[in-house]
Amino acid sequence: MRWALTLGAVAHLILAWGVGLSVDEAHYALYAYHLDWSYFDHPPLVGWLQWPAVALGGSDWALRIVPLGCAMASAWLLWRITTQWVLRHGTQAEAQTAAQGVLWLWLSAPMVHLLALALVPDSLLMPIALALLLVTLRLAHKPPVANGHEPYPWRDWCALGLCLGLAGLTKYTAVLLVPGVVLVLSLSLGWRWLRGPGPWLAALIALLLISPVLWWNHQHGWISFAYQLGHAGGRDTWQAKSFFGFVVLQCLVFGPLSWWAMVVGWRRMAWPRWTAWLALGMALPALLLTWVLSGNGSALPHWTSWPWLLLLPFSAWAWYPMKPQHQAWWRGGVALQALASVALCVGLIWGRPANPFADVQGWSSAAERATQVAQAHGLRTLTVVNWSLASRLAWYARPMPVIVAQSHQDQFDLWFGQFKPGDHALWVDWSVKPYPAPIASAGEAGFAQCDKVQTHESQHLGQVVGSFAFHLCRDWRPAS
Length: 480
Known about the structure:
Elements: H1 2-18, H2 23-33, H3 45-48, H4 51-55, H5 65-87, H6 92-107, H7 110-117, H8 121-141, H9 154-170, H10 178-189, H11 197-219, H12 223-231, H13 240-253, H14 256-268, H15 273-294, H16 305-311, H17 324-349, H18 363-376, E1 382-384, H19 387-396, E2 402-404, H20 411-416, E3 425-430, E4 446-460, E5 463-477
Parallel strand pairs: 1-2, 1-3
Antiparallel strand pairs: 3-5, 4-5
């Protein structure tokens, strides 16, 4: 298992050199470049952790160190949790066999490798959620008494508050972890645990850690919370087709074998049922909410990465009592999932336009050329039509401002503002996702005129992966 983890880490370091930043990676790298107490769409931890890499130059390779570290921390925590659970009813050899099986399922899941390469809040929340699971189980199995015979577990309560606070600094949906913690502590300790000082110390630590988010939102009219509520709405109608398509996608990106192993493990597991309710209580609220939102078209597949990881230890019981004749089938399934992950990594490097991952290539040279063209025409601003295009352009063209032409209030408004009447800018159009020029018409905001001045082809491994057209746009006119 160690050689597999080492090989995976080396492969990711190689990928980090040859793959450009994705939409979200560039967006969160800009968090570190424009360091703040919080941000429009997410809490600040993802940006704070990238600040050292950005301060040292912000190379693509350096920005991949944090997500790889998060993946390695997740693997270590997953191993420790699984071995501790199995050791309560099994031998050391059985615990190691089960933990190896769980880690093979984790290592063969394609989504794990994406999150180990590209830093998003879910990359951070995976090890934080596992650490929270570990600390809560420790408190549940060791009642907090202070009768002189056993020291009060101050360290564990402080660790609980630290995990909850870090989770709150990572993603707003991390609040869904709290009900599971309260549930298992109440089931194991009774409601008397609330009368001790430990829970209130943990709550105080968590509150202090998330205070920058609350203060920033207070100063900005609570726009983050309004955005999250509106973002969760999605489409007006819920569609079963979108829901089932999302469930199938979940099965593929996390590996169908891992979901099946969880079901088998749940039926065979030997630990007390109330202990299992902690993992279920922490994982199911976020998992079910994401699945429901998928019917409205407002869910992304990586949102369920940390709930899936919390449930993965259930698969331990699908491994160590396995009959010899069944082991070959399980190992073959893991090998197939691993091949899918390898194909994903190869797809990230291969640069043909038909490749679905080709959009991570070419933005660096395009941004450099766009900056040169803008400066040649005396322009100080670049523009695109939405934030997903703006993130990579703004990152690679920094410190050149990038204003989103069709902005409906987002983080780029806070960083670069909006156009004023009469402003000029260089509009960048991308062949992979082309848009009509932002010309003012029928009372809609836009420029009076946009003229193409130059084109640029981006190449990767000798292949053209996309072309960019640069338009000189004059005289911005606000909506009437």
